[in-house]
Design goal:
Layout lengths: L2 H9 L2 H32 L10 E7 L5 H13 L4 E6 L11 E5 L7 E10 L3 H5 L3 E4 L17 E7 H7 L9 E4 L2 E9 L18 E5 L9 E6 L4 H15 L4 E2 L7 H8 L1 H35 L1 H9 L4 H38 L8 H25 L11
Parallel strand pairs: 4-9, 6-8
Antiparallel strand pairs: 1-10, 1-11, 2-10, 3-4, 5-8, 6-9, 7-8
Helix pairs in contact: 1-10, 2-8, 2-10, 2-11, 3-6, 8-11, 10-11
Length: about 400
């Protein structure tokens, strides 16, 4: 198959060829970036929270005028009496719930070496074990590690950080015994856990999603009204239902937060609800765009077959086989798609740069380009197949007909 005659034919139909090539270029740019966005969303939805989600639920109350010590005493007593409850503890936040304490930290007392913005989980006695955190360095919190809160965290305490945060703060070094500061507050690393996702995700991008610090705290002033319940997975829904009723009865002056008083699994589903919807929309956009592109190719190829019917008959009369005609239209389509994807590569990275600047998305990995190109080549060959088969079926006798 000689390419020169095909290119000559395409030059005679510049406008139609250009329009299809531009459509394919746009499809390439949208396809690659949309697939990357979908993969990013799916990756976020499968983040390892680090906790035993199947066994945990949260009860959250709102009470501005309550005595924190008295509120904790009444609610903890009521929740512990529920059949099936394995443990109840006070905690300021849980993964996928409302965040309660993020702040910037520094690696020196003078606050000259920033370490980033991290999430401070404050947990009362028993909460570390209840969460089911996987301790990979250090020892479990002991009784004397729990400190009273000065504000939303203790002013000086031993803390447990995630492996991701340790690798960020002290790459390649042993984090145990290391120190960091939050303004005048001082903390020492007593242990490292494998994972602990931030409640509201990583504000600095995917790499910060596990920049979490667990601080042992004594329930009381500044630390009340949020309770972590652990139960067997099969009885967790029943325990949660009873816990809601018990909390309202024990503290009638407080208001139960229905949206946050759920199992961790339900909080995860609610947290990623918009991501699921966005993924569905992007899949729909990709499908619609590929359909429109395929229809454009089919329409153009069908038009050219009808326009060249007598020319095809002449070629058949001169000895061209049906396979030759089929190969001609497939090669022609391959060249048009190739021109489109070359321009599409430029548009793809242009669109990705705009998304990076506007929405803080990471750079598009280069391997998305060959995947998009192969997909469009395959789409082009499938779309042109039916018109090409019709062209190949044109009999040689057409060449002898006169208009």
């Amino acid at each position: 198959m000689h390419i020169a005659p095909i290119l000559s034919a395409l030059r005679r139909h510049r406008l139609a060829t250009l329009l299809i090539a531009l459509e394919i270029a746009l499809a390439c740019a949208v396809l690659c970036n949309a697939c990357f966005l979908i993969a990013s969303r799916v990756d976020q939805m499968h983040i390892n929270s680090g906790v035993d989600e199947a066994s945990l639920a949260q009860i959250k109350l709102d009470c501005d005028d309550c005595n924190d010590v008295d509120l904790n005493a009444r609610v903890l007593s009521a929740l512990r009496q529920i059949p099936g409850v394995q443990s109840v503890s006070v905690i300021n936040a849980v993964p996928f719930g409302e965040h309660a304490g993020d702040a910037g930290i520094h690696l020196d007392a003078a606050n000259q070496k920033p370490g980033g913005v991290v999430e401070f989980y404050v947990g009362g006695p028993g909460s570390f074990q209840a969460l089911g955190l996987n301790l990979i360095q250090g020892a479990l919190p002991q009784a004397d590690d729990y400190r009273a809160l000065n504000d939303f965290v203790p002013a000086d305490a031993s803390v447990w950080i995630t492996h991701a945060l340790a690798a960020h703060l002290w790459p390649g070094e042993d984090p145990l015994g290391r120190e960091f500061w939050m303004d005048r507050y001082h903390y020492r690393v007593a242990g490292v856990v494998a994972h602990l996702a931030r409640p509201s995700g990583g504000e600095g991008g995917p790499s910060t999603r596990e920049w979490s610090v667990f601080v042992p705290g004594i329930p009381g002033k500044h630390f009340a009204d949020n309770y972590l319940i652990r139960a067997q997975p099969e009885s967790l829904q029943r325990v949660l239902r009873d816990a809601r009723a018990a909390a309202i009865k024990a503290a009638p002056e407080a208001v139960l937060d229905q949206q946050q008083s759920r199992t961790i699994g339900e909080l995860r589903n609610g947290y990623f609800q918009q991501d699921v919807a966005m993924t569905g929309i992007l899949v729909g956009v990709i499908a619609a765009l590929l359909l429109v592109t395929a229809l454009g190719i089919v329409g153009l190829a069908s038009f050219w077959v009808a326009q060249r019917r007598k020319q095809i008959g002449v070629r058949r009369a001169l000895g061209a086989t049906q396979r030759d005609i089929l190969r001609y239209f497939q090669t022609e389509n391959f060249l048009i798609v190739s021109m489109g994807v070359m321009l599409g590569m430029v548009l793809t990275y242009g669109l990705n740069i705009w998304l990076m600047l506007s929405y803080e998305l990471p750079r598009l990995p280069v391997y998305y380009l060959p995947i998009g190109v192969l997909a469009l080549w395959l789409l082009g060959q499938l779309a042109v197949l039916a018109p090409a088969l019709r062209a190949a079926a044109v009999p040689p006798v057409v060449a002898t007909r006169t208009e």
